[in-house]
Amino acid sequence: MTTGKINVSVENIFPLIKKFLYNDHEIFLRELISNGTDATLKLKHLTNIGEAKVEYGSPILEVKVDKEGKKLHIIDQGIGMTAEEVEKYINQLAFSGAEEFLEKYKDTAKDSGIIGHFGLGFYSAFMVASKVEIITKSYKDEPAAHWVCDGSPEFSLEPADKTTRGTEIILHIAEDSLEFLEEFKIKELLNKYNKFMPIPIKFGTKTETLPKPEDAPEDYVNETVEVDNIINNPNPAWTKQPADLNEEDYKTFYHELYPMQFEEPLFNIHLNVDYPFNLTGILYFPKLGTDMQIQKDKIQLYQNQVFVTDNVEGIVPEFLMMLRGVVDSPDIPLNVSRSGLQADGAVKKISNYITRKVADKLKSLFNENRADFEAKWNDIKIVLEYGMLSEDKFYEKAGAFVLYPTVDDKYFTLDELKENLKEKQTDKDGKLVILYAGNKEAQHAYIEIAKEKGYEVLLLDSPIISHLMQKLESDNKDLTFVRVDSDHIDNLIKKEETTISKLSDEEKESLKTSLETYIPKTYTVQLESMDSQAAPFIITQPEFMRRMKEMSQTGGGGMFGMGNMPEMYNLVVNTNAPLVSSILATEDKTAQESLVKQALDLAKLSQNLLKGEALTAFVKRSFELIK
Predict the structure, then answer these.
(1) Is the N-terminal amide bond of 405 cis, ω within 30° of 0?
(2) Range(s) for CATH 3.30.565.10 in the chain?
(3) Which of 22-36, 123-137, 442-456, 569-583 has the lowest mean pLDDT?
(4) What pairs with residue 207 in β-bridges?
């Protein structure tokens, strides 16, 4: 038996590991299983190249709980170690640079990245164990070895009687970590971190019923057998080539990732690149609608099929964080616990690749089946609009597939809009005016007036559409978006012809004075000469003020506090309407006020602005008028 000291002079190295180097104690199991997987895959490689003269077979990893003995076993059938290799890899190599690192960064080590560089994964065992044993036999024809350490720098190393190849790690669970002796807890961790590890992982056994033989008698009782309970899928969909998968395979994998998600995804994007970095994965578009508050931790990050985190900020562009799926890359630099990212050039390249790949996929879906793409538009638009605002590279490509629907369920790209609308909706200054509504029901009257003129009206109702319109207008100087209720239709798209007013300038001045006596200060009275058949009173909301207010409410950088400003409206009065002439001709001030209030309330009703007490008074007044 050999005894000795681990090659490290920092006496409190293990408490430091426990306290600083890992954010989350539960990842010890992930680290130890990852080590076992690596050992198994190394053996596979050595047998493939003929360096290991042994049968690879069908190795598995096994996790066993011994609750009574307060022990947790992790067993692999991999490459194993000789006593000399235990001495080298466990006692020396792991601490070759760690001592210096810890001394330098002991106050901030929690946030530093050393696990991949210093081989500290094994020592995560001491986060939950008061004593750790290693019983290991190499694939080489040498005796097995038994290493024991109680968390101090002291260890023992002696021969063992293990006869099968591989390594067994035995954790003597510490009193403050007894939760890791509960089967449900270990099962939860295996499912979280090791669900897609490349080597089968056994955790207990399960009962399976054998199929009934074809020639079995009627009273045959199905036999049951105990089989290994393999808790992982070693060959998940993202590790396969897209050509080897069909739509059903992708959907099956989606439900494997999200067992509680019953709704089908709309479509998927398979990521697969090996240069200039290695990246695989599958992203799914779920039904999103216009809700921007969707949980953004649905995409899972893996490194060589080992779960790392579901916080993929930085790797996946922000606008795609609302998607679901998997990204797997060995080239993403991780911190000591592999649960956070370091910002570097590789990560930015990966993010740019994902942006480009998503844009290319959307374009091909649009080109291959436009009708299907249009049918899904309302469920994906919030992601694409956000992408256009936040990623210049996506914005450049988005013109080919981003759609602008009309209130009549027609869909146009921006180029198609320009082509189809230019004849009728270009104003006298040569600017194309794109009319839109935010709510088809609330703005119905204004939409109908525009349609009577032969104009198309878009239905743009996402919470960030005001920001997108600003961007599109700045990039297309001959184009403007105007909400259909922001002014009278003749003012929205000004043509050369003008309608002459029936009222003289003096009558207009008298009318305006009378109206402003009865109309609240939140309305700005505008007298307009319009068709005599047009509505006498029309309430509009100025495009600029309303848009700035909306942008402020959805994160427009403050917008000078406009989000808190009261609503301001224009009251457009048609000087050629018979009712307006009647108001002007009515000398009885009480009767005149009643006419004005009734006309204003009718205009407010069409804008869904008449509510509560004002609505009750309007109904009462209306009944009195028709007695």
Answers:
(1) no
(2) 2-204
(3) 22-36
(4) 226
